[in-house]
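EI: anyone free to look at a 458-residue chain?
SC: sure, send it
EI:
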Amino acid sequence: MTAVDGPARPVRAGRPALVPFPVVDEITRHCLREEEPETIHIEIRLPGRPDPARLRRAFTGALDRHPRAQVRQAPGPWYRRRYFWEPTGEPEPGLEVVTAPAPGPSALERARERCLASAPPLSVSPPVRLDIVADPERPGGTALFLTANHTALDAPACLRVLATAAELYGGRDSTPAAPPVRTAPGGRGAPAAGPSPWTPSARVARGTPSGPPGNGVLVAGLAVPRRPPGAAYTVNDQLMVATALMIARWNRERGAPPRPVRITMPVDDRPRGPGMPIGNGTRLVDVPFTVAELASGARGAATGDAEAMGALLRRTADRTRALKSVPRPQLGHGAALLTAPVVPVAWRAAAVRGLRRAAGPWSSTALLSNIGRVPYALDFGDAGRADAVWFSAPARMPRGLSVTTASTAGRLHLVLRWSRTLLARRDGARLLELFERCLAATETAPAGNGGAAEGGTG
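SC: here you go
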């Protein structure tokens, strides 16, 4: 059963008005593939054990407070011009939104695989599920696994729902912490030119894929990278450079020809409070890197030259800052045209899939999504406060690789997620090793000129 399968349910009288799919939801819906489910995976570690019945009530209450999370795709004829969300106001009768799988030594791996292997169907409300898993790695601890269908919700929206559930369970305020203050460096001028947009992007070189199609994943806890006082770049810029260098080194190891690397970065401008808009609210920008910037010779950043690394970090900061500041539709103007309801939605779906295949060589190399410091306490009362938060975004082809990060309790929580048609688990382990090495190399860069730039979310 795919993520859109399930019995068609009639629209019931007295429900709120149907909501047309926004651009991001429609494009994602067009590109769904059964082999690579479009799921958001969030994994939260707690030091204690929550009461399952009480947590079930709290999570259901959180869904009530965020009604946009309780929707299903409304049925309609093939010739309809739009997809619509139908708000239901409550979970489907008989649907177990919160479950507690059997404990065991491999419980975490099984829960993680389920997050990646199957998406909650769009035909059933809500398109999310929460698993409560006894943590075999920490006696008395718990892991919460939230899986969402990415056509309906993104990771920041899911985190907001979980923050509300924690507030209802533990009785502690879930008001988000104030965002870090960033002082933009002045007088730096226009960002350095990147590669031509007409140049095909580097692809992540194929490893040794094995097993069935789908996604694989590795999670890791790392130290938050250090920056010198007054650095003109953020932690997000360090993560961006480390991701680009990781891919460049991986490709060199496999003899792939050097090409520019482009990293897709989600930008989220929504407020994080209880009134945060729920759904898919990020816009995507592509941060480019030239072949010379990632080269291993002639003062390229891959040489280990601290000055070259500092220059690359500052150029990356300029580029990301400029990209964030430009008002732009979530997926660009082209996507807005492709979703204009002038012909049946089924025809538009075929056009989107065809254009996606044709534009494959120019699509970005990988995705880096950095939430930064998790703004919520995620305090579950007697079960304790979350001390680790991992999340991951889909890694469908042609990119085939996503890198996602968040920091909690002073640690950086990293997830590498890949398409199994591209990489195997041992390939993921090698990429993780390269990422750690490249991230550590960014700590050697001097501050350079410019004012302080605190924080660093994407």
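EI: The first strand starts at residue 19 and ends at 20.
SC: 👍
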